[in-house]
Write a structure and sequence with these properties.
Order of helices and strands: HEEHHHEEEHHEHHEEHEEEHEE
CATH topology of the largest domain: Alpha-Beta Plaits
Shape: elongated
Strand content: 15-25%
Structural class: alpha+beta
Number of domains: 2
Radius of gyration: 34 Å
Strand order of the largest sheet: 7-8-6-11-12-13
CATH class of the largest domain: Alpha Beta
Helix content: 40-55%
Number of helices: 10
Largest sheet: 6 strands, mixed
CATH superfamily of the largest domain: Reverse transcriptase/Diguanylate cyclase domain
CATH architecture of the largest domain: 2-Layer Sandwich
Distance between the termini: 124 Å
Amino acid sequence: MNMLNRMTADLTQFRIELPAQQFEFDALKFNLAEMRWRLNVANSLTVSIIESAAESIMITDARNIIRSVNPAFERSTGYSAGEAIGRTPAILKSGRHDRDFYRNMWDTLNKVGQWQGEIWNRHKNGEIFPEWLNISAVKDSLQATSHYVGVFSDAHTREYILERLNYLAYYDILTGLPNRHLFLDRLNTTISHARRDKIMLALMFIDLDQFKQINDTLGHKTADGVLIDITERMKSCLRDEDTLARLTGDEFAVILPNLAHPDAAGKVAAKLLESCAQPLKIGAHELRITASIGIAIFPGDGENANDLLRHADLAMHSIKESGRNGYLQGTHGKSSDNVSH
């Protein structure tokens, strides 16, 4: 009897527990189904956003193979999804950027997980065009990069590009200084004002001595660092009303308006030489830079831009031929007034 009672009790307990377990299992299935539905909705929304985005979107895997592009990408590049998927972003390479550009891009992307900047791409038809690119690295659960998402922004591109192209037309991209085009415009304007007001101005040509050797032996990155640092040093020697411009790789020019006396130009040149000659540390390299400066004075050395440019250039080359690291100020580029080494 006791055994029967125990069996009855066990069966009763089994009947009671079974519905509870079944309820928990059904609830779990419901939760999983709801989670799957929500995930599908989220995925569908994400796809819809990407597909309808005005910006071009490209997704690559960790090996930089294109895995997905949106319709905006197809429209802006001329490549269909079928043509782009399976290839690398190199199909858009314009040739406008050197290896250092891409090396710096990937260094930043790998360290920070994101890179953004202006990039020139090539359309399928061969046309080259600028865009603003934002690349983000996507991490997996182990924090390893699984994908890269590139967004080519067209939202502000037109206005930005117009401003950027206007800037590049008049300014040097590395130093931010006026380029030759803007420099010549300012020189002509300054000459007109000096002629009208019957005052003097000085024009200087500045050439960094043996800069090519730095470029050839230490590389473009170090050479660019030198140019940027020397630019800041020279700016600190000038007044707000003066113009410092970069004409070519290592050649600069200065316009000194409202000159009280011709000797004032020599004093400025001496300050520039002293500033350039201070030890310069770029990365692991400690360098000493010297310069050769030629000076022409309006109106004594010329009453128009062409004459002043020619005489300043002659004076600069005379200094370089006589040993570099100095300035020459004199009528028609001759050493009749002031020579300094």
